Amino acid sequence: MDGASRSQPVSLSASANVLQRVTENVARVIHAPAETLQLCVLCLVSEGHLIIEDLPGVGKTTLAKALARSLDCSFSRLQFTPDLLPSDVTGVNVFNQRSNEFEFRPGPVFANLLLVDEINRASPKTQAALLECMQEDQVTIDGVTYGLPQPFMVMATQNPVEYEGTYPLPEAQLDRFTMRIAIGYPPLIDEAAMLREQTSTPPLESLRAVTTADEITEVSADARAVFVEESLNRYVVAVLRHTRSDDRLYLGASPRAGVALVRVAKARALLEGREYVLPDDVKSVAEPVLAHRLIVAPDARATGTSPADAIRDALARTPVPV
What we know:
Blueprint: H1 12-27, H2 34-45, E1 50-53, H3 60-69, E2 71-72, E3 75-79, H4 87-90, E4 91-96, E5 101-106, E6 113-117, H5 124-127, H6 131-136, E7 138-141, E8 144-147, E9 153-158, H7 171-174, E10 179-181, H8 188-198, E11 211-212, H9 213-224, H10 230-245, E12 249-251, H11 255-271, H12 279-290, E13 295-296, H13 298-302, H14 307-317
Parallel strand pairs: 1-9, 1-10, 2-11, 3-6, 6-9
Antiparallel strand pairs: 4-5, 7-8, 12-13
Helix pairs in contact: 1-2, 1-9, 9-11, 10-11, 10-14, 11-12, 12-14
């Protein structure tokens, strides 16, 4: 079986039930397509990190808070600003005069779910404080390494239309985010319902947890145990290589992108109640997992080419294993 094996069989129905329960709970607060909410949950159980990029006022922060409140685990929120320091994120050693020793004061990053609001408003130095956290689930302060609680997930928001006073994330950091999603404007009926809810008793205030951190950890282990046929691994690599050889792209998908794509595809198979991955699992999550990692060449950008176009072409040109 691909990935880490477990002593007990994958509990498909129980794990799928947990994923569905969390998705439905978040849907009580956010009026967004079910696929978008499912992607958030899949990112969590695939042990990844999520960036929510959309216009102001569509509910980016509310979505992150709703997902956090659906889990009975620790949650921290950081508002990134230009004057924020790396130690404000990770923590700092403080001298204790009583004991005559330095003591470590953990920062907000020591939580199961960390919401980083407007991540592109902090300086690159502060943004880089998240690199070790996101890649290795640990923080190193003054030569001492501290492990982060599990599960651990960074949910970041950013505004794609307001660039003044912002610091765009470098490609190396974008590549550490498992996927990027957008919420979009809700349909007329849903937006009218949202106005009624938010002006009386906001549903976020009464939202209750429907699962625990330990249960999510178990579901993540089940997702890792989902079987992936070797031909499907080669299919994923072929898709990645198409993006690297595409003349319209200045930068294609990295091997880390392939790892993330397979992990999310496994989580989707688990949500569907299967213990094996299908090509449709890969196709359905390819765009949110890969698009933010690609850089379109200037001449192709001038003709309106987007990363999503390149991904769709790569999927269309790659033979599906049978």
